Amino acid sequence: MIVDKELFERIIKKKKKLDSLRPFSKASLSRLKENFDVESTYNSNAIEGNTLTKSETKLVIEKGITIGGKPMREYFEAINHKKAIDFIESIVTEKKEITKEIVCKINWFVLDNIEEDEKGIYRLRKVHIEGASFVPPKPDLVPEQMEEFLEWLKENQNKMNIVDFAALAHEKFVFIHPFIDGNGRCTRLLMNLLLMQKGYPSTIILKAEIKKYIRTLDQAHLDNYAPFVNFIARSIERSLALWIDALRIPSESDEDEFISLAEASRLCSYSQEYLSLLARKGKLESIKKGRNWVTTRKAVREYVDKNKGKL
Ligand SMILES: Nc1ncnc2c1ncn2[C@@H]1O[C@H](COP(=O)(O)OP(=O)(O)O)[C@@H](O)[C@H]1O
Ligand SMILES: [Mg+2]
Asked: What is the pLDDT of residue 270?
């Protein structure tokens, strides 16, 4: 197992908690989806250089409004990404096995109206990734490596733990770089497909964390997998926490309710700055909501209990 053990246990616990809240109310689910579609489209496209803001992205995908002063390409990227999300959701609902056709179709959606000649087909040209310490395989090796990749998915989907599986699939895919463009967006969509097939909410790699994403991905390409796997693990944990927060039935003395680090620091002897450091390092169970870290009363209590002897 590559993922950090403690982090993995937290994920499993959160997944159980989420499952205990099933069946989810239709209204909450559709609110979650609406929000997710915007967040995911905004972040995934922004990582690849799209300049639409989150609210512009929302206008485009919910109302089909074009944004004055922004290139049509960015408009299509938003529309396309939303269609690709709906497509992968239909694959999950229909319980389909992942095939070459499905992977190519995801790319077809992502590049529709943008790369008309090369959308949805494996690349026929060499590619170079700026800043990367690896060179993707030559085009004639792509079909074979993608076959192996699809085999690997089939072989490991019920063997490997979900976190390692989702993260390694992401890394392998982007390493092959099968398409002329859109590989980043496709691999994130594909990872979400794998997560959803296992009953996990889809997850979002935040634009704000792009440096960490690229750095850890590059390390993974050099066979140092843990930083990237744990990066993805944190992102999965975040999605679970957001879903639990949106779906739970609130009660008064709610130990699972999100609180700010300022409030958390009042519950213990640590400063807000120190709690923020613990949050960033993943030592205190916490997630980033908007620009700020949030935690829960329970997480603070557990951290304090665990580290009592160490002070
Ligand atoms: N320095 C790097 N090291 C490793 N992987 C990288 C690096 N830079 C980019 N990548 C990967 O390549 C993706 C970009 O590939 P690209 O085909 O242009 O996809 P998209 O068009 O969706 O941006 C990034 O999202 C990331 O997954
Ligand atoms: Mg690109």
From this structure: 93
Active-site residue identified among 81, 170, 177, 221:
177
Residue with tokens 């389909």: 96
Q: What is the pLDDT at residue 311? A: 53
Does some domain include residue 31? yes
Has residue 265 been placed in a domain? yes
Q: Confirm whether 252 is domain-assigned.
A: no
188 lines ligand 1 (CB under 6 A): no
Ordered alpha helix ranges (H), 157-270: 162-176, 183-197, 210-221, 226-247, 261-266
User: Does 170 contact ligand 1 (Cβ within 6 A)?
Assistant: no
Helix (H) or strand (E) holding 20: helix 5-20
Query: What is the residue range of 304's domain?
Result: 258-310
Q: Does residue 190 lie within any of the structural domains?
A: yes
Same domain (yes/no): 207, 66: yes
> Probe ligand 1: pick from 183, 219, 221, 228, max atoms within 8 Å of CB?
183
**pLDDT score of 256:** 83
Residue 251: its pLDDT value, please?
65
Ligand of minimum distance to the alpha carbon of 186:
1
| 177 has catalytic annotation | yes
Answer yes or no: are the C-beta atoms of 163 and 229 closer than 8 Å. yes
Cβ–Cβ under 8 Å, residues 267 and 303: no
The answer, yes or no, to whether any atom of ligand 1 lies below 6 A from the CB of 115, is no
* pLDDT averages per 10-residue partition of the chain, 311 residues: 97 96 91 95 97 97 95 98 98 97 98 98 95 92 98 98 98 97 98 98 97 96 97 97 86 79 91 94 91 93 85 53
Task: At 32, give phi and psi (nearest 5°).
Answer: -60, -45
Ligand 2 center from residue 49 Cα (angstroms): 8
